[in-house]
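haha ok so turns out i had the wrong file open the whole time. this is the CORRECT one, sorry everyone. sequence first:
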Amino acid sequence: MANKLNLEKKNINFVSYVITIFNKRKYINDVFNSLLKEGGSHKREYILIDDGSTDSSAAVINSLFKKLPGRVIFIKRKNMGASFSTNQAVNLANAFWIRLLDGDDCVTYKSTEKMLNLALKYKTEFVYGKMKRNEKKFYNDKNKDHIFQTRKSGLKKFIRNCPANSSCIFLSKRRYYYSGGCNESFVSPDPLLFLRLFASGSGVFLKSIVTLLPFEDASKERLSNQIKRSRYESIFALIKFCEENSFIDTKIRKMAYKRSISRAFNYYKYFTNSFFSLFLWYYIYSKFFFPQDYTRIMYRCLSVFNEKEKNKPYNWLTGSDKYALSKSRIRN
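then structure:
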């Protein structure tokens, strides 16, 4: 087990960059340049998963990866989803530490080293930073402010909203496994992954830009551009968090319950231009009561975005979900 989790002291300065790619051809060169210019004295390796790209992402990667300052593992396979790809890449990682990165997000100068130093300083195995739109310039954020966050304060922050994405995360392989990693039924791993990480312990928030997102981002692939599916997943993440952590402080679970209802109520108004609904009643009720079957009401909130609640439309399924469904149909 120690070898699997890379706990040996010789690996304490070793970072595996986990990079998932799906149709990111036009961004890959910028991402690689940011990795080349990042700096830092840590040892590194790069694990790249091409998650079934239909553009020429793989060809671009093959032409560039030898320039990276470390060992490279490159896998191309059929589409299974970002969450599946992240789990697969972490399993292959040889380092003690993991830096998560999407295929169109650039790292900032010495951002990995900054997060590594904070992890060692606070003896914690989870650090995350801030993200910003890429303005086509090399970004060196000298802001060194940071906050140590307890499990409770971290959960409160990410129940309210998810202000960071997984490309802002630096953590140990051990912490990744202990938290449960990515749920492979989520198109975006971010909302549930942050909740899982804080459910498993404390962390440090580095108030510096560690990740640059594409400046021009009109792509439909970005989950944030797909309101119904993204809001559905944000509530579903809160439901899964509550189901996985029934032992956690009631106040935390109640906060997740109220946030789900508030989000459903507000989006129902937005979609229908109607104030009065079942969700108005749920919203008022949640101000005074926390029922034993609160997750049933949370599941009901999913209907604002998908009438079938738990049963997602086929085009909302991840590649791994579609694969599992096809196998089930064959067996039946």
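The CA atoms of residues 30 and 106 lie 7 Å apart.
again sry for the mixup
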